[in-house]
């Protein structure tokens, strides 16, 4: 099987990471030959034996004029083109596929309700098991450390963590929170301006060679998201042995369980989606800040349970959610379509 895996650009981002990790995992499968000269060029004479696969926002997919064996799309439902007044280019590009892959049922739902006339299959994302290995933390060390990692923004519920933190902990308690991101955002700047002098809260904005640099230095990951297409940070943290505190909504409901940490219950409050994506109607249900505060406090006071949940979480991810699992699932679907 010959695979040409395509992406719009190679700028470092979560989109690039997915492309890179899938490429590496496909290369490890003996029966798969991967085109290695980049996602754009394809001067290969025997195109009829190749499968063309695009990943990213469907608006920017540029299908080749070559005659290929299959055309496959891989996408989320958070792409900006999905929310434009005229998503016709996106729909047209998707309908040129033989089938579509999505990493979660939450991401798939929007496409199932769109005028798309091709099959849609589930292919969960994963982690690199060589990079995100189990790390033996000292859960009894003097300062207990929480982490919020990723783009600091409304959709991630980043501001809710501060609200919950002030309810959960007194300033003199030996506990800390790191809000870490690789790029500046208006919400990061505003939170840092308001709470940058808080003795327990650290804001860090830097690119790291591996996010394990953050995971290994902390005990518990916090994800009070309002919506997620998959949420790579959660299984990454789990793989290293971190229990997680996670909103009971969206894609993480498909792989996260209470055995791996704690759920943040959802409130009866809703907020407009356009606070994150301008010009978009609709509402997102908000995670409950009191529930988050309660779970953070509980984790801080039950460290042995944190250790045990982290061990179970790591075992689950490494057995079920690696990029090798993702590549082999895609291969299984492709073979079914070629029969």
Automatic annotation (TrEMBL):
<dbReference type="Pfam" id="PF13692">
    <property type="entry name" value="Glyco_trans_1_4"/>
</dbReference>
<protein>
    <recommendedName>
        <fullName>Glycosyl transferase family 1 domain-containing protein</fullName>
    </recommendedName>
</protein>
